[in-house]
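We append the chain.
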Amino acid sequence: MQAVTLTDRGQVRAYNEDSTNAVQNSLGEYLVIVADGMGGHQAGDIASSLAVESMQMSWEDEKAGFRPGRAEAWLLHTIQKANETILDYSKEKPEYAGMGTTLVAAVCTNEFITIGHVGDSRAYLFGSKVLDQKTSDHSLVNELVKSGQLSEEEAEDHPRKNVLLRALGTDKGVKVDIHTFEWDEQEAALFCSDGLTNKVSDELLQEVMNSDQTLEEKAAQLIRFANEAGGEDNITVALIQNSPSAGSDRSC
């Protein structure tokens, strides 16, 4: 497998509250993480970093390979542990009270990919030249769309679009969505913060994924498109391709 992560401050924000990483174990399996922090005054940066660091530390302690059931249990436990880490930190440092972060993370093997998700950062699978969103945003606007109270067109510019219903670090009993999908050689996955998806359409995401560019070039182009569309938010992209014969590659 090959994996690339790339994050950018964007055109407006003073600092980057997103964090990301792709970590490979000795068996060639990957943990891919994207976290989009919130809280202001750099608290969001701390929350997202704590989430990524907590999960990475748990990953580095793992020595055995993964099967779908174990991957799902591991992700649930590890994401809940990251949630506790953020809560404990905000209790120790009252100035960071209320900070939190979205999270999308995946255990990736050659046979399957297991995705854990809290918030509105997203995961997509890309196969047969089609990009398929595999997460559903935990946001107020998305719930209004699902209940029929808003159309997708109305949701695009809704004033409460950024209101989240779930996040890490804001509640002790965080609910995590976890799903496992089979994937074949040459299929790919895209993980990203809403700084990308609020600015780049699904059609354009799919067009870039269908291009002949390298993973690094695709990630850079996606971030460039978001910046050219205004770049009001931080932008983070993580790409992984299921190509067992290829070597590993990580970028930040």
Summary: The two ends are 17 Å apart (CA to CA).
